[in-house]
Amino acid sequence: MSQIKEAILETNRQGHKAFIPYIMAGDGGLEKLKPTILKLQELGVTAIEVGIPFTDPVADGPTIEEAGVRALANGTTLRKVLETLAGFAHEIKIPLIAMTYLNPVLAYGIGQFAKDAHKAGIRGVIIPDMPLEESDLVHPALKAAGIDLVQLVSLTSTPERIEKLTKASEGFIYAVTVNGITGARSSFEGDLESHFKKIQSYTDTPVLAGFGISTPEHVKQFGSFTSGVIVGSKIVDSLAKGDWDAIENLVKASKTVPLA
Amino acid sequence: MSQTLIKNGYYGNYGGSFVPDEVQKVLDRIAEEFAKVKDDPDFNNELNYYLKEYAGRETPLYFARNLTEKLGGAKIYLKREDLNHTGSHKLNNVLGQILLAKRMGAKRIIAETGAGQHGVATATAAAMFGMECTIYMGAKDTKRQALNVFRMELLGAKVVAVDKGNGLLKEAVDEAFMDLVKNHDNTFYLLGSAVGPTPYPEIVEHFQSVISRESRAQHLEKEGKLPTAVIAAVGGGSNAAGAFAHYINDENVRLIGVEPAGAATITKGKPGVLHGFKSYVLQDEEGNLLETDCIAAGLDYPGVGPLHAYLHESGRGEYVTVTNDEVLDAFQVLSRTEGIIPALESSHAVAYALKFAPTLSPEDTIIVNISGRGDKDVQQVFELLKNK
């Protein structure tokens, strides 16, 4: 079974919601990657989404885009990120998920990328600018290397589209809670609970909520009707400020959600 | 006609759509509506009315006698897109897309702009059609092009300075797509160049193809034959797409795209995915975009329309480069010999023609696409020459 799926289900079996923080590799220097990942692991996160900086990040909101600009400015590249991760992969016990745009992967060469990524502890990949219809470009190589291709599912899509993406997604379903891009938001619209339950009814792969989750209350709110949450901008922001208390509070919230 | 070139959103291996799902469903609606209108006689009658009465088409195919005599060699014709209303070819596409927007029931038009030419053309048409208009422009560009910001505001548009990333064209494009995703119920995104996810490259090429529809008929009338070559500047590639479109099946007509040496996407780039489509991209080994350096803001782009990637790879098109110095020289040569001040973008095509025409014989003819007028560039050229 997918290691990511197994990690999420195991967390749920222990009575907790999955918590996946997003970090931008190279923000603050690549030397921070190891201590950051090991500390998050120690806090008990389920998996970690590792962002690869790119010059043209169309799906990123301002917080993550700026972190990407900082990371690029200090020379971070996909190759260096994979090398750095491979250097301490034996210490990483939880699955890593790379979030990268398509062009850096194509430039790297998809076959080589899949091999090097697996060595670096990466067990899943999210490519926000690659539609399902084009996934033949990367899917065979990822599959051969044992890496999941995670699909982003927008709640505003048609029911047919949601069903198709949900069934194609590996590891987990990354359900996008709001229109548009990543970033912290103060409130959410619509009847989300029934929406998430509908998505979960298509598959036994766990559904996680992401985009715009930034407070312990959000974590509890979304955790109450999903298998877990992904928190991006708020983590990136807190890491940049060195505010580990804020991160710890978010992780803790995922462990106090009452079971549905 | 070139429509036969595109299949499932691809020109050969290039084009397609690499966007998040929520953008795709809006694009699908636009593609569906465009397919309905492009051969619809009522739609085309209305478009032709505005092209004639508002834009001032058709534009002349002018025989540049002085330049021809000065250079010796091929007869040089200039396709005068600079005489279009707002001073460039941009309005051709804007009028087509705004009529498409009206058909789709849009009340609001949004667009991106780099130097401001497309923004001005869009604001102009939106004013005339009485539609609300928002133009996204990189914060840095709004400072460099303050006069064009005022021009757009004068025309009633709201200009939003996008202050994220590098504050340039690509951030403006991203912001416009975000707006489209949020407001597609009443909003149409009027994209200005022959780039972006399908169906935009096809739409822009279609509405710009009026350039070659006219020039082909005009040249046949004046010379009784087709030209030896058509030359156009290529950045994103919209004016070249329009200048080439009706000649693509005329295999004896050479199609020559001229790129700036400092932003030579086809000549120096390699295939990749950028801004939602697959094409040639100026990138480093890691797949990150390279900075460009070109004196014409309108060509300062690290990607190129998928039509050009296809024409290059199939061998149907020839892509060459000229340097900033050659462009500056061409800007002055055309001004002095013909009394026509070309845009710095168009001066790239002129610069290549200055080298190319003398290599041909007097029986040959070439068409140089003068995509826009150079008034906007006079200040910049003044500074450049002063510091030389």
Automatic annotation (TrEMBL), chain A:
The keyword Lyase applies. The keyword Amino-acid biosynthesis applies. GO terms for molecular function: tryptophan synthase activity. Keywords: Amino-acid biosynthesis, Aromatic amino acid biosynthesis, Lyase, Tryptophan biosynthesis. GO terms for cellular component: cytosol. Its EC number is 4.2.1.20. The active site is at E49, D60. Pathway: Amino-acid biosynthesis; L-tryptophan biosynthesis; L-tryptophan from chorismate: step 5/5. CDD domains: Tryptophan_synthase_alpha. It catalyses: (1S,2R)-1-C-(indol-3-yl)glycerol 3-phosphate + L-serine = D-glyceraldehyde 3-phosphate + L-tryptophan + H2O. Tetramer of two alpha and two beta chains. The alpha subunit is responsible for the aldol cleavage of indoleglycerol phosphate to indole and glyceraldehyde 3-phosphate. Belongs to the TrpA family. This is Tryptophan synthase alpha chain. It comes from Ureibacillus terrenus.
From TrEMBL, chain B:
The keyword Lipid metabolism does not apply. Pathway: Amino-acid biosynthesis; L-tryptophan biosynthesis; L-tryptophan from chorismate: step 5/5. Coiled coil: none annotated. The modification N6-(pyridoxal phosphate)lysine is found at K90. One of its GO terms (molecular function) is tryptophan synthase activity. GO terms for cellular component: cytoplasm. The beta subunit is responsible for the synthesis of L-tryptophan from indole and L-serine. Tetramer of two alpha and two beta chains. This is Tryptophan synthase beta chain.
